[in-house]
Amino acid sequence: MKVLSVVGNRPQFIKSAPLSVALRERGIAEIVVHTGQHYDHELSQVFFEELGLAEPTYRLEARTRDVGAMQPGIAGAIARERPDWVLVLGDTNTTLAGARAAREVGLPLAHVESGLRSGDWSMPEERTRVEVDSYADLLLCPDERSAETLRGEGVPGRIVVVGDVMADVCLRLAPIARQRSRALERLRLQPGGYVVATLHRDANVEPPRLGRIVEGLNRIALPVVFSAHPRTRRALVRCNTRLREHVTLVAPLSYLDFAALLSQARVVVTDSGGVQKEAYWYGIPCVTTRPSTEWVDTVELGANTLVDDDPDRLLAAVEAASPLPSNRPPLYGDGRASQRVVEALCSLSR
Ligand code: UDP
Q1: Mean per-residue pLDDT of the chain
Q2: Pocket test for ligand 1, best of 7, 9, 10 (most atoms within 8 A of CB)
Q3: Closest by alpha carbon to 116, among 100, 127, 103, 102?
């Protein structure tokens, strides 16, 4: 069997790491197409080095988020390789370009992280999730809720609950991260004595939302480490946004440095999908700067507070946050999702 995986940005490099291992363990050939949606070293190459990812078979160097620009290169690779499965991950423009390319060539499509919904149609990610799920042949869900959503939508593909592949990486690497990373020393932070922040959603890196969220960060009494995408950094400069002294802007961190930082923080303030889940797995309370989330269970369990872009609510949620109880229910898998993905691909391959 041959699987062609389409990756192109930070969360996908991370998600693809345990999948590549699981495919290799089953002796399945994997062709990796890297669209080049993310091309900065700290958003791309650092993950290949740290997570031991194989050099992609195809590097398309798209250097754009434009779906139409990425699709032809992916379609070309699919047509040439004729894999048994095209595998796409998550909800980014690379996901959409990969899915459309598989459809264009007419080969089976599998979607990892299928069935997530925030209900917010203004987000490009939500529209991508719905479109990709509507024509994926195999829908690989992190939990029963996502599977139920897909059944409700009446999607034609086969639905399988596998768990979350990000949990596979997180559970395996978090202990190593805390041993190896020197990030806390470098940033002069004490475990439990700081807040981590990340921000990169389209709507949040534009005024007025950017300014309102930064106002909330500026009012936090603890040190704040703000890991900013290049796009976020450019927006901060463009909008002349002032960060107070206790807010330290850092370039995106490697997976291990970020895992060390997140897993020992007092609170995380984020608009990232992946970080909301990781915070839960690490037992760190999360404050999400969005009006909604696709990771609904984290909110229902009281582990995640949605504050939209309201600085007052952001501050109140940070101040009220307490560490998650150690007996919290497990969410989104047990660290063996990748093996289940491979099982599903093998059992359904034609
Ligand atoms: N992450 C990282 N370095 C950072 C910030 C985040 O390695 O400085 C990781 C984080 O641990 C998670 C992933 O990036 O695994 C989330 O990616 P991102 O927030 O870009 O995308 P999303 O999850 O929102 O699609």
Answers
A1: 96
A2: 10
A3: 127
Ligand 1: which residues within 6 Å by Cβ? Answer: 10-11, 14, 90, 198, 200, 227, 252-253, 255, 258, 272-275, 278
Alpha-carbon dihedral 17, 19, 22, 27, rounded to 10 degrees: -100
Q: Which of 238, 170, 182, 174 is nearest to 210 (CA)?
A: 238
**Is the peptide bond preceding residue 142 cis, with omega within 30 degrees of 0?**
no
Residue labelled with tokens 């990232």: 272
Give CA 350 to chain center in angstroms.
30
Chain segment 196-206, per-residue pLDDT in tens: 999 999 999 99
194 CB contacts (<8 Å, ≥6 apart)? 187, 222, 223, 224, 225, 265, 266
Is the CB of residue 287 less than 8 Å from the CB of residue 267? yes
Helix, strand, coil in percent for the chain, rounding step 5: 45, 15, 35
Q: Which residue has the tokens 């069935």?
A: 115
Taking CA atoms only, the protein residue closest to ligand 1 atom 6 is 258
Q: What is the secondary structure of 123-164 as a DSSP string?
A: SHHHHHHHHHHHH-SEEEESSHHHHHHHHHHT-SSEEEE---
pLDDT digits (tens, 9 = 90+) for 294-348: 999 999 999 999 999 999 999 999 999 999 999 999 999 899 999 999 999 999 8
pLDDT single digits (tens) 238-270: 999 999 999 999 999 999 999 999 999 999 999
CA distance 168 to 339: 10
Q: How far apart are the first and last CA of the chain?
A: 9
Q: What is the CA radius of gyration of the chain?
A: 19
Q: Is 229 marked active-site? A: no
* Rounded Cα gap, residues 336 and 22, in angstroms: 9
CA 65 to chain centre: 16
Report field, pTM of the whole predicted structure over 0.85: yes
